[in-house]
Specification:
Strand order of the largest sheet: 1-2-3-4-5-7-6
Order of helices and strands: HEHEHHEHHEHEHHEEHEEHEHEHHEEHH
CATH class of the largest domain: Alpha Beta
Structural class: alpha/beta
Number of domains: 2
Distance between the termini: 46 Å
Length: about 350
């Protein structure tokens, strides 16, 4: 697929969404989905400059690009930095070559380290490393070794995800045997302690950052903020004084290229009902370790948190949340049993 053709489609897509956000500024840009680091630096520069020409971007905006390790991609990092990208998120997943092979990754540990070193050499001072744990046949010691190797490379941010089996994937078709739930939780607690000792503060279920390096893009998402989604299969969420609406774009790349910027390029929209909003909000905000101010619920949904007295009291009685008149947050138990906590907010 020609890069210029796809970037032009992205910009047509953005232009179509602009009337929905007149008067607003972008606080962050996240270039992800698939492997955007396969694009050349010129294409990324064209995209970022095209966005700037169509909607104001705050001067200190966070502009992130997802990158998979590999010599070819890593060699482009200097060009990405020059194009305006100021944050890289590198999908390492593991520093164990056997686990990388099990996960179906094409890179090895050495190329992951090389990518990080090359990013530093290109001038990036804001790096995220993605890691997974709870992998097939993974021991606690191996998980600790992965986190230790990441810490030794001193990224500003670490995203630490538990492996989940998704449908329509190779693992979904033939699920591997994973560690028991209690063993995974014990592993997670140990990894959290190692990251805390290295001055990485956990601020979300899977996110750890050094001072001042929390992901602004993800924080907006977790606080149920608005965002535009452009690209094949991209999802957006926008609100006005009355409604909260989700919309998503054509998923197949060929269909997207043909219809981007037209009504046919939008696969669907959904206006969230008052019954759906509490769960939609809590699915994001209760991932935050420090929780959220009570007023945020009303600001983001137009509803009153006091309308949820029954599930809130139930959650508190079960030891899943701590709350008062101005703030609410999940307990450590609530973080462990997040799905059970969220279930309390289905239909209020």
């Amino acid at each position: 697929m020609p890069e210029t053709e796809y970037v032009n489609a992205l910009l047509r897509d953005l232009e179509q969404d602009l009337p929905r956000v007149w008067g607003r500024q972008l606080e962050s840009v996240f270039i992800g989905g698939g492997t955007p680091s396969l694009f050349g630096a010129d294409a990324i520069a064209q995209l970022i400059s095209g966005i700037r020409a169509r909607i104001p971007i705050k001067p200190a905006a966070e502009i992130t690009l997802e990158a998979n390790p590999g010599t070819v991609e890593a060699g482009r990092f200097a060009g990405f930095r020059e194009a305006g990208v100021n944050r890289l998120s590198i999908g390492v997943q593991s520093f164990n070559d056997q686990h990388l092979k099990t996960l179906g990754r094409i890179h090895d540990s050495a190329s992951a380290v090389k990518a990080i070193e090359t990013a530093r050499g290109a001038g990036f001072d804001n790096l995220n490393i993605d890691l997974m744990f709870g992998l097939p046949d993974q021991t606690v010691e191996q998980a600790i070794a992965d986190v230790g190797r990441a810490i030794s490379l001193a990224p500003e941010h670490v995203s630490l995800y538990q492996l989940t089996i998704e449908p329509n994937t190779a693992f979904g078709a033939s699920p591997p045997e994973l560690p028991e739930e209690d063993a995974i939780w014990a592993m997670q607690l140990e990894l959290q302690a190692r990251l805390a000792d290295a001055r990485y503060e956990q601020y979300e279920v899977s996110a750890y950052a050094r001072d001042g390096k929390r992901s602004r893009h993800n924080l907006n998402y977790w606080t149920f903020g608005d965002y535009l989604g452009i690209g094949a299969g991209a999802h957006g969420k926008l609100s006005d004084h009355e409604n909260v609406t989700r919309l998503w774009k054509a998923k197949h790349p060929k269909e997207y290229l043909q219809h981007a910027g037209t009504e046919l390029g939008i696969s669907g929209t959904q206006q969230l009902s008052a019954d759906e909003l509490p769960l939609e909000f809590m699915m994001n905000a209760l991932r935050l370790v420090d929780g959220f101010p009570a007023t945020l619920f009303g600001e983001r949904t137009g509803l009153a948190l006091t309308d949820l007295i029954a599930p809130l009291e139930r959650a508190e009685a079960l030891g899943l949340v701590e709350r008062d008149a101005i703030h609410m947050k999940p307990t450590v138990r609530g973080q462990q049993y997040l799905n059970d906590l969220l279930a309390l907010f289905i239909n209020g």
